[in-house]
Each structure stands twice: as structure tokens, then as C-alpha cells.
Amino acid sequence: MSKRVIVVGGGNAALCAALSARENGADVVVLERAEGELKGGNTAFTAGAMRVAYDGVDDLLTLMPELTDEELANTDFGSYSASDFYDDLARVTEYRTDPELASVLADESLPTLQWMNKQGVRFVPIYGRQAFKIDGRFKFWGGLTVEVSGGGPGLVDALTKAAANAGVQVEYGARVLSLIAGDNGVSGVTVRQHGVTREEHADAVILASGGFQANTAWRTQYLGPNWDLAKVRGTQFNTGDGHQMALSIGASPAGNWSGCHAVSWELNAPEFGDMAVGDHFQKHSYPWSVMVNAEGKRFVDEGADFRNYTYAKYGRRVLEQPGQFAWQVFDSKVSHLLRDEYRIKQVTKVTANTLEELAKKMDGVDAEGFLAEIRAYNAAVDQDVPFDPNVKDGRGTSGLAVNKTNWANTIEDGPFEAYAVTCGITFTFGGLRINRDAQVLDTDQRVIPNLYAAGEIVGGVFYFNYPGGSGLTNGSVFGKIAGANAAG
Ligand SMILES: Cc1cc2nc3c(=O)[nH]c(=O)nc-3n(C[C@H](O)[C@H](O)[C@H](O)COP(=O)(O)OP(=O)(O)OC[C@H]3O[C@@H](n4cnc5c(N)ncnc54)[C@H](O)[C@@H]3O)c2cc1C
Predict the structure, then answer these.
(1) Quick one: residue 173, left, alpha or beta (phi over 0 = left, psi -120 to 50 = alpha)?
(2) Integer distance in angstroms from the first to the last C-alpha of the chain?
(3) Does residue 238 line the site of ligand 1, with CB under 6 A?
(4) Which of 241, 288, 361, 461 could cross-link 334 (Cys pair, CB 3.0–4.6 Å)?
(5) Per-residue model confidence as pLDDT tens digits over 363-394
(6) Residue 42 Cβ < 6 Å to ligand 1
(7) pTM over 0.70
(8) 83-122: buried (b, 16+ CB within 10 Å) or exposed (e) per residue?
């Protein structure tokens, strides 16, 4: 007799888990808290960028068979081995990442994306944001080379379609409230749908209900003071329900509960994400800028590394500033480098031909402090090193309290542009402890029978920081594993 599997959540991790469980013979029901039009969790807000290990273009062709001869001729895709992926995870998490989960993530990334492709998810190269052109050829930075066609909404659509075709039952507006658990482990859930509470029984439950970033009280409780003031970049529905229900039956917390992924985000963005704007509230061209706070002072090395390796930790630095805001200031020498998200209508932007005029226009900033800071910064730029946005060019400053390591340009040629940002939280890093089979462990480190978890709800993979594009891959890899094991 086939097993019955309940999947809690309706984002990438949940839908991958559901498809995998179904493929392995289970009857599957997905319980998604959001109503139809808000479905898809944080996944729907993404650009669909997915980090994947590949040995070269032949591996990429298995994901993107439609690559044309022209694209192949005009692009240097390089390679990104599973050990490069593992090393990046280790490095950016300051060697805290769980080595076993990290190696499963890196090793299974390519086979998992190949499997998603067979389910109907189409991948394309990220020419727009992750490649640069040298002598007429695109060259990828490495690692973050593919995105889902149609971005996050495209991913949710493709997986939802695949689930429907496979006979997975998907229920919307169905908020899971608790787990039904006894001596033999988990045997179902209590769910409230459209005002009616019922029990659903199953042989296994997979929790894929996201992080707790949309829970203001928990943010403050776990991440610390002022996190209540951060904007939530994505869904309003990831409030830690899955964490709560698992912890209450003895599941072990794991990972960086005081840590999260948070970025520079439009100052006046709404409290939660806006599906129509998606990720365009982010402001990720800061490596070419100087970022100043209310005192007019720089507070971070904007050019410490490529954006992929700093953006997720710099949101916290903005939150720490007086008033929880900063301005990104660009000189005209670099304004052509600004990403597409700077060109949307919903930006807090000022422009000026002179620095004095700009200083007056930047709301909340001490003008004198700013002008003094820029004078000191300009004098400290090593102009002998040529500026090259395509490599870590080493064009830095010296002698400042906060030096800029790469891409330092003087701020002296108008017109100037400045953009106001605050902190946007993407997802929390702390979660449930799982093993390599995606089984949830209890506080005695024993498996809780019939309970699995995948995606943002899992702790132990990300600490302090995050290599761009790993969140979706993480959910897919462990979702697929959870589904197969729950059905087995
Ligand atoms: C603006 C933005 C851009 C991003 N860009 C990228 C990117 O390009 N690449 C990348 O890898 N990552 C990106 N991320 C991170 C990425 O979104 C997540 O890592 C990933 O989508 C998490 O997938 P998930 O399935 O774990 O959670 P989600 O997709 O958030 O799904 C969780 C689901 O659980 C549901 N749920 C919550 N509580 C309950 C309950 N009690 N009962 C039933 N259902 C419940 C929610 O409604 C939601 O649908 C981005 C995030 C944001 C916000």
C-alpha cells in the first residue's frame, strides 16, 4: 500500500519534496497557508538564481539543452566544482556550516537541478547579473550561473504544474497548527482551512514552512534589538509555525538562531514583500558606491568582495546605524554600472551636480559630516591602480578608519546619485536539526520517526552570511531527499 505524506508549505522546498515523494510512490497532500494568489512563499519573490556545481559547459548543457551555438561561442561559463561550492559555504559561514549537510548540498546540487529540469523547470544563464563582458565574450563569475526561466514566479508555476500532473493534492489557505505525535513519532497534523480545523493523518510529515523572519516578536527575541524594525523582503506567512510545532514535540534547534540573511533594501518599502516589485527593492550595486549613515560616515567596506559574498550580511550593518538607514552615493563615473533595480519607480533617490547640493538633499544626513568624510575618502583612494569592476581590482583606500578594499573611485564628478536604504530581512538561519536524510532529530539527537524538514526551516547550513543562490538549491536538494525518504 502506498504511504501518505503531508507536506507543510508551498514554496520550492515543499513542492520539490512533494514531487519526490510522489515519484517514489506516495500519496501526497501539500498544505499551503497562503491563498492561491499569494502562494509560493519566499520562492515566488526570488529572481530564481540557483547555485550549482558544474565541471564545465557539458554539465550546463544537461540543465540548459536549449543553449544556442552562438551563446556557447560567446560565453565563458568556466567551471565550479562541488568542492568550490563546499569551500564557499565553509568560507562565508566562517567554517560553521555543518560539514555533512554542506557536502550533501554541494554534491547533490547538479543531480537535483537535472531532476528539476525533468520535472519541467527550465533554466537559463544569468547573463544580466552574474556575467561580465571581456573582449566581446561573456564571462561568468562562477557558481551562480543559472536561473529559472521566469524567475521565482516561473519556478513556482513550473513546480505547481508538475505537482498537478503528478497527482499531488495541493490545498491553499490551509494553515498547519500542530503535529500529531506519540511514542511512534509523527502521524499527522492539525490544520485550519477556511476557518475549519481538522486533523489530517499520514505516514510521514515534511515541514517546509520557511523561516521565522515575518514574525516581528521572534525577530526581536532571537536576532536581537531593532530587528523588529527591519522590512521583510518576502512573504508575510513565514512566521515560524513549523519551528514552533516541531520544537514543541521535542525537536532540536540547530544553527545560527541569532543570524539571518539581510540586505540593503529600499528605505520606504512596505513591511512585507510586494509581489509586483519582487526583489527590485534590493540595492546591490553598493560595491561601486560609498555608503554613509546619518552622521555622514562610512561604516562598511563596500568593496570587500564581490556582491555575492557580502550582500547578505550587510543588511545587518545598515540596521545597526542610527535611524537604521544609509545612503548609497554614486559618482557619475560608475552610474552606468547600476543594476536594473535602481531604475524602478519605487526608489528614494536624490541627484545633484555638486556634493554640497547632494549633502543637503540626503534626508537625515549630517551635511558637514558627509562632506568631511568624502574629502578624507577621496584623498585616500589609490588612483594608481586602474578601476576594473570585473575583477577584485585592489583599487582601494588606505589610512581610513574603514577602508574600501576594491573598486574605490573618488566621489567628485557629478551628477551624483544617492539612494536611501534600510535593512531588508530575507530569511532566518536558525532552524531544526536534520541529518543527511532530512530526518528531524530530537534534543537527544535521535531521529523523530516520520518527521522530515527542508528549506529555510532547517538550521545548520548558513551562519553569518550566505553564498548567493544557495537558498533555493538548499531547499531543492533536501526537499528531494525528504520526499524520497518519507515515501520509502
Ligand atoms: C526578495 C527575495 C529574493 C531572493 N532571491 C533568491 C535567489 O535569487 N536565489 C536563491 O537561492 N534564494 C533567493 N532568496 C531566498 C529564497 O527565497 C529562499 O531560500 C527559498 O525560497 C526558501 O524556500 P522554502 O521552500 O524553504 O520557503 P518558502 O518558499 O518561503 O515557502 C514556505 C511556505 O510555507 C508556507 N507556510 C508557512 N507557515 C505555514 C503553515 N503553518 N502551514 C502551511 N504552510 C505554511 C508559506 O506560506 C510558504 O509558502 C530570495 C528571497 C527573497 C525574499
Answers:
(1) left
(2) 11
(3) yes
(4) 288
(5) 999 999 999 999 999 999 999 999 998 889 99
(6) yes
(7) yes
(8) eebbebbbebbeebbbeebbbbbbbbbbebbebbbebebb
